[in-house]
Write a structure and sequence with these properties.
The chain folds into two domains: 3-288, 4-Layer Sandwich (Nitrilase/N-carbamoyl-D-aminoacid amidohydrolase); 320-541 and 602-615, Rossmann fold (3-Layer(aba) Sandwich), CATH 3.40.50.620. 42% of the residues lie in helices and 20% in strands. The chain contains 22 helices and 22 strands. α15 links the parallel β20 and β21. α1 (18-34) packs parallel to α2 (59-75), α12 packs antiparallel against α17 and α20 crosses α21. 46% of the residues are buried.
Length: 637
């Protein structure tokens, strides 16, 4: 046996808070040192925070991270523990997203990221330069480039996030060069369904490259990106350990590198591939580190939790539906909480609660965050803290129903939030009269204007309250209606943070159904008794004014996600909903495309939103469409 103890730490880093991030790293490293960890692994960009975007253009920000790396080297010197962590490094007119490796008081190597993503939410190539395969330079006396590290326990390599997502990434090259242990430092954002994809992909990389693989992920939210943390340790494809997600924590796991060496000798395919690769591809520089690592003589062989090497681990008794809902709710709660706490100016959270589905779910997610924040308090103290920090307002007009009023009041009572009723009818009538006066005797206040006046009054009042109270005003609209422009600029589009702006309406309903089943909130049941609609006019139903939400979300996914042409979408809808009347699918698709394109100008005025899927309507983050565009291309002559 050749045992090493690997520690992985999910650290919640704030962009720009280098001193605070460094302090968190040092705290967890001290705990790892006390536990006898051999190699401590911390996430990508953990010193500067991620994504730092153009902040890396400030030289002082980059220099502070370099000084932080040196402090970590100095303060972990006596233990002999190897430390691997992420930072930005400036070198010869370039900026690199790097992994720094320290041991016995020295920075022994810097490894730059090679695969720089510029898709979806990522813009790394805008500011960073990629590492070059086979290239090795020096920053002073520190090797910089395509490296592997020879230690007393064996040879290891480091890579960063996207490097591991490519089957042709540096892992293969470095494993063929002798690396038995590969450490992947990541800042990989949460997306629905991502956990299974990560686990399967990393297990495959570990198996294909016949290596022990460590993956550690950043945790916490910065702007609209939510990092769910977690981590894995695999031995040649076999799972050994998995870290908890959505919280700052660390775990350690013993790994037998002799198993990796033995399996390589047994695999003729791996050996022949390695020989062929080394003959054709650039070499990798070996950094020889002679100083000893911590004593490993008392480490125990890793045994399975089941007590048998032939049986799987203990099962997790949760359905796929529950996994989906819990992950999404946890991610959104983390997004609210880190935005609230990291900005540091807010005294509480406010929601304009209509009694409808979207605002109800937003309130429940905010309550989920606050419950976890105050979990250390006694039950009475927790209730008091939540009441002090969570305030919701019901602002009825003449079109508001008793059903939504009852749902809003009940859910606020069940959650222990402060609840205020502030009618807007008098102000609504006054603004309608003023609008008519501005139009003159020949003008006419339109139906949509009457509706928008109500929404804008509510938005304005929430902003006025937020400005004076110091509370965070949450925007509650969902992605489906945002995509169609079924929202009011200056009204329900208002807020400092859009919680559900990238959650489709069908998913909003699913989450509420799940919370009704799992928590039994009467407020949700009362909410479902009323049809979904904004209540800005008599008997107003969202699906009557748009289309069935199941169809709307299908159109949205197929058009904006899969980039299908309208005739193709019609064909797919026919297979999905074969019982709909003839011609309805064509009409719905035409309506969707028209409203979707006409509404882009609204998206660019919407507040920052939480990113939780592979499709995002925040223009600066993912789906970058021109504001001024035509749909002529969709028409075939």
């Amino acid at each position: 046996m050749r045992l090493v103890k690997i520690g992985i730490a999910c650290v919640n880093a704030t962009v720009g808070a280098v001193a605070s991030n460094l302090a968190r790293c040092l705290d967890v490293l001290a705990e790892m040192e006390a536990a006898g960890v051999t190699v401590a692994c911390l996430p990508e960009q953990v010193l500067g925070g991620y994504p730092s975007e153009d902040l890396v253009q400030w030289r002082g920000f980059v220099e502070a991270q370099w000084l932080g790396l040196q402090k970590i080297a100095a303060q972990t010197a006596s233990s002999g523990m190897v430390v691997v962590l992420g930072l930005t490094v400036a070198f010869r007119g370039h900026l690199f997203n790097c992994a720094g490796v320290t041991h016995r008081g020295r920075v022994v190597g810097i490894v730059p990221k090679e695969k720089l993503p510029t898709y979806n939410v990522f813009y790394e190539l805008r500011t960073f330069s990629p590492g070059t395969p086979g290239r090795v330079d020096r920053i002073g006396d520190i090797p910089f480039g395509d490296l592997v590290f020879d230690m007393d326990f064996g040879t290891f390599a480091v890579e960063i996030c996207e490097d591991g997502w490519s089957p042709d990434g540096p892992m293969r090259r470095r494993c063929y060069a002798g690396a038995e242990l590969v450490i992947n430092l990541s800042a990989s954002p949460f997306r629905t369904g991502i956990m299974g994809t990560r686990r399967e992909m990393l297990a495959t990389r570990s198996s294909d490259n016949q290596c022990s693989l460590v993956y550690v992920n950043l945790v916490g939210a910065n702007d609209g990106l939510i990092f769910d943390g977690g981590g894995f340790i695999f031995s040649n494809g076999r799972p050994l350990a998995e870290a908890p997600r959505f919280r700052s924590t660390w775990i350690a796991q013993n790994v037998d590198l002799d198993r990796t060496a033995r399996l390589r000798t047994e695999s003729t395919t791996w050996r022949l591939d390695a020989v062929a690769y080394r003959a054709a591809e650039p070499g990798v520089y070996h950094v020889r580190v002679d100083a000893p690592t911590p004593d490993r003589s008392r480490l125990e062989y890793p045994v399975p939790s089941s007590g048998s090497f032939f049986l799987p681990g203990l099962p997790v008794h949760r359905t796929p539906r529950a996994d989906f809902c819990e992950d999404l709710l946890d991610a959104l709660a983390l997004g609210i909480g880190d935005y609230y706490e990291k900005i540091g100016t807010f005294k509480g959270i406010g929601v304009a609660l209509s009694g409808g589905r979207d605002s109800l779910l937003t309130l429940l997610i905010a309550h989920r965050y606050l419950t976890r924040r105050f979990a250390h308090l006694s039950e009475d103290e927790q209730k008091k803290a939540i009441r002090e920090h969570l305030h919701c307002f019901y602002m009825p007009s003449r079109f508001s129903s008793d059903q939504t009023r009852g749902a809003a009041a009940r859910i606020a009572e069940e959650l222990g939030a402060r609840f205020s009723i502030i009618p807007i009818d008098e102000a609504f009538q006054r603004e309608e009269e003023i609008t008519q006066a501005m139009l003159g005797p020949d003008g006419q206040v339109s139906k949509i204007t009457r509706e928008n006046i109500q929404a804008r009054l509510r938005g304005m009042r929430m902003w006025n309250w937020s400005n004076s109270s110091g509370f965070l005003f949450l925007q509650t609209g969902n992605m489906s209606e945002k995509a169609m422009g079924y929202t009011t600029i200056g009204g329900d589009l208002e807020g400092a943070l859009a919680v559900l702006a990238n959650v489709p309406k069908t998913v909003v309903i699913l989450l509420l159904e799940y919370l009704l089943e799992s928590a039994g909130y009467e407020g949700i049941r009362l909410c479902f008794e009323a049809p979904a609609g904004p209540e800005l006019a008599s008997n107003q139903r969202g699906e009557d004014e748009l289309m069935p939400y199941r169809v709307l979300d299908a159109c949205f996914y197929l058009y904006a996600g899969e980039k299908l042409d309208p005739p193709e979408i019609v064909r797919v809808l026919g297979s999905m909903f074969p019982n709909d009347p003839p011609g309805t699918h064509e009409a719905w698709v035409q309506k969707f495309v028209r409203l979707f394109v006409q509404s882009i100008y609204k998206w660019v005025q919407a507040p920052l939103s939480l990113h939780v899927g592979n499709l995002d309507l925040e223009r600066e983050r993912a789906l970058q469409l021109p504001v001024v565009e035509s749909t002529e291309w969709t028409r075939r002559s």
